[in-house]
Specification:
With 158 residues, the chain is an all-alpha fold. The protein is 36% helix and 0% strand.
Length: 158
């Protein structure tokens, strides 16, 4: 194994990751009520920026926080819209894997799926396919889109 034959005594208490601050860990999420008016689940944009859809699960590292991404053009705004809904779907999917009977989160999940589908449709109608499987017609149009390293005067995060 990794630590066999090593004279290393790992004492994780020395790490003090919370700087002496007691951090509440709420593992009993199943008893909570989740709906759009409940502050425990964030809107798709906020959850995407924070990297977590659940307000009470976000713990910033030291004094650092997330960057508020602001698309600089219509293309970036539409792509950001797709990205935020895709993230929300994935994060709520993980929650629903553990809590399959939570109907309120399932309803929100389905709303995000509908919003993502519409966002993808809007983006693809204006700017072409998002994936290689979404090309249409007799031409392989994927190659015509800007490549990730091409600077279109936009935001480096979108």
């Amino acid at each position: 194994m990794l630590f066999d034959n090593n004279n290393v005594d790992l004492d994780f208490a020395l790490l003090n990751l919370t700087n002496g601050v007691k951090v509440p860990m709420n593992m009993n999420m199943a008893n909570k009520t989740f709906d759009k008016s409940n502050p425990n689940i964030l809107p798709a944009k906020d959850g995407f920026l924070r990297g977590n859809m659940f307000k009470n699960e976000y713990m910033p590292y030291k004094n650092l926080t997330y960057v508020d991404i602001r698309p600089r053009n219509e293309r970036e705004a539409k792509l950001f819209n797709v990205m935020q809904y895709s993230f929300a779907i994935n994060d709520l999917n993980l929650y629903l894997d553990l809590h399959p009977d939570d109907r309120e989160v399932m309803a929100l999940f389905e709303e995000f799926v509908k919003n993502e589908k519409e966002a993808k449709k809007e983006y693809m109608e204006s700017y072409g396919p998002l994936t290689v499987t979404k090309t249409k017609g007799n031409k392989f149009t994927w190659i015509d889109n800007p490549w990730p390293w091409e600077d279109l005067g936009g935001n480096i995060y979108v």
